Amino acid sequence: MSTTFDKVLVVDFGAQYAQLIARRVREAHVFSEIVPHSMTAAEMKAKDPIGIIFSGGPQSVHVEGAPSIDPEVFDLGIPILGICYGAQLLASMLGGTVEATGRGEYGKTNLSLTYKSALLADLPIGKEGCPTVWMSHSDSIVAAPPGSTITASTAEAPAAAFEDSAKGIYGVQFHPEVAHTPGGQEILKSFLHNGCHARSTWTMTSIIERSVQNIREQVGTGHVICGLSGGVDSSVAAALVHKAVGNQLTCVFVDTGLMRAGEGEQVEETFRRQFEVDLVHVKAADRFLSNLEGVSDPEAKRKIIGETFIRVFEEAASDIGEVNFLVQGTLYPDVIESGTKDAAKIKSHHNVGGLPEDMQFDLVEPLRDLFKDEVRAVGEELGLPEEMVWRQPFPGPGLAVRIIGEVTAERVGILQDADAIVLEEIRRAGLYTEIWQSFAVLPCIRSVGVMGDARTYDYPIILRAITSEDAMTADWARLPYELLERLSTRIINEVAGVNRVAYDITSKPPGTIEWE
Ligand code: XMP
After folding, report:
1. Equal CATH topology for 7-195 and 405-503
2. How far is the CA of 71 from the centre of ligand 1 (A)?
């Protein structure tokens, strides 16, 4: 089996779709890497790509300072596919003409094929007797570069696709990467296989094999530790490192007492019993609770939890003896975004299981090249339980940021019980993977109720269920009334100390997903 991969560079011109293009290439089993448009041709060549894709972008090529590319990229002899802005840039840099015609196209558009092109050969014919594609452009390419052939046009785009297959130059004004272009993936595949002669070796099995090889080379005979949180990323990273170096790995699971019900047991069951990993399970609930005593400010809670976690982790590490490497579950989107994020701080996300800044280890990051869906596929391939691989995101500080006010053992217990019911019912309704996150929040207020003819004065539980693509924005999930009713009845009947249930119908923005 081949563990070498052909690589395609996706040049990012500020498109919302650059990551999507990169994922589509990988779905065709070819490795892709996103690079900035400021990268020089020499730097691109050094990466040894078999093809280059120019993404779309929000600008017009006519605007001063619009993103461009090192013209020497055209001398590398590497096939290039330009998409939307990328196609316009190709056209304008290679001697074609792009005009602000004032007649853009947005959404589904009929395409008329004007020349037989291998790139467009597999586009399915729609109801109206022609392929339909997804457009989003205001400028139009009105003349293709000299030597190129126009292969398709639309009502407003005389050169909706052009190519110079001898030179390996292809441009499409529409977006083949989006699901709204039926057969769009076939265009990308044709570019990869016919245009670039790429091999389809980027498969789960070969990703795992290559990763195992790399980890072995990096680690040698050294000892590795991994902070397990029970979440997808640290679990998959640990399973990969274990496959590579077996008992040179020790996993540390710090039970903060702020986890969901049953989480510690599942980590034990999977890693200690199923995978026979050397696992240190530090039961530190009392220490976390006592450090959190009397604290209700959300940022103060996060800071205390972060610091306590690091201290507990360091103590566990020093008990293990000589440790040279620390596993981190860094994913590809974190790598792409690091250093470019300039957002205002809304809350200081604390990632339990993350890197203590002052620790002296080399990092092992086996997921650095992978998107989340690839991480999940690797986890499944490695035999991790489905509940672990498909787990909804959970904040590092755990239930502490879902108890609004001081965290006490009693409140953690109430919230764990309510949360377990929420997850059970959401699963039973078949909504668990469709919903981004669903959980219970415990605000530290009490309200009056009546149960069995007697007055109650207990906590409410707030249900939060949201849909999202990436947690940056979110909408409240339209849960069926029957499900809300069952959740309310079960939580009030089964969780002592709760007499009321409310549903949070706030989107993000203006709310955040978590309450703190
Ligand atoms: P917010 O509440 O900011 O959350 O809308 C966005 C996503 O991040 C998760 N979250 C955290 N994750 N440490 C984490 O590891 C944190 O401190 C933290 N706070 C929020 C949250 O669950 C959601 O998925």
Report:
1. no
2. 42
175 included as an active-site residue: yes
**CATH domain 405-503 topology:** GMP Synthetase; Chain A, domain 3 (3.30.300)
Q: What's the CATH number of domain 7-195, 3.20.20.450, 3.40.50.880, 2.60.40.10, 3.40.50.1360?
A: 3.40.50.880
User: Does 197 participate in catalysis according to the annotation?
Assistant: no
Per CATH, which fold does 204-389 belong to?
A: Rossmann fold (3.40.50)
Phi, psi of 9 (to 5 degrees): -90, 135
Centre of ligand 1 to C-alpha 395, Å, is: 5
Residue type, 440: A
List the residue whose alpha carbon is closest to atom 17 of ligand 1: 349
pLDDT (0 to 100) of residue 435: 96
Q: What is the pLDDT of residue 42?
A: 98
Closest residue by Cα to atom 6, ligand 1, is: 471
> Residue ranges of the chain with pLDDT lower than 50?
339-343, 353-355
- Catalytic status, residue 128: no
Ligand 1 centroid to Cα of residue 355, in Å, is 17
Instruction: Report DSSP letters for 218-261, one per residue.
Output: HHTT--EEEEE-SSHHHHHHHHHHHHHHGGGEEEEEEE-S-SPT
Distance 349 CA to ligand 1 centre (A): 6
Considering 105, 177, 514, 516, which one is annotated as catalytic?
177
Which entry of 175, 223, 242, 350 is annotated as an active-site residue? 175
Cis peptide before 79 (omega within 30 of 0): no
Could you tell me the residue ranges of all domains in the chain?
Answer: 7-195, 204-389, 405-503
Per-residue model confidence (pLDDT) at position 333? 84
Give the residue whose CA is nearest to atom 11 of ligand 1: 395
pLDDT recorded at residue 3: 64
**Ligand 1 atom closest to Cα of 351?**
15
pLDDT at 413: 98
Q: Which amino acid, 489?
A: T
How high is the pLDDT of residue 353? 47
Q: Name the residue type at position 242.
A: H
47 touches 78 (CB < 8 A): no
pLDDT at 78: 98
What is the DSSP track for 453-465? TEEEEEEEEEEEE
For position 340, what pLDDT does the model report? 42
Q: Which tens digit of pLDDT belongs to each residue from 421-444?
A: 999 999 999 999 999 999 999 999
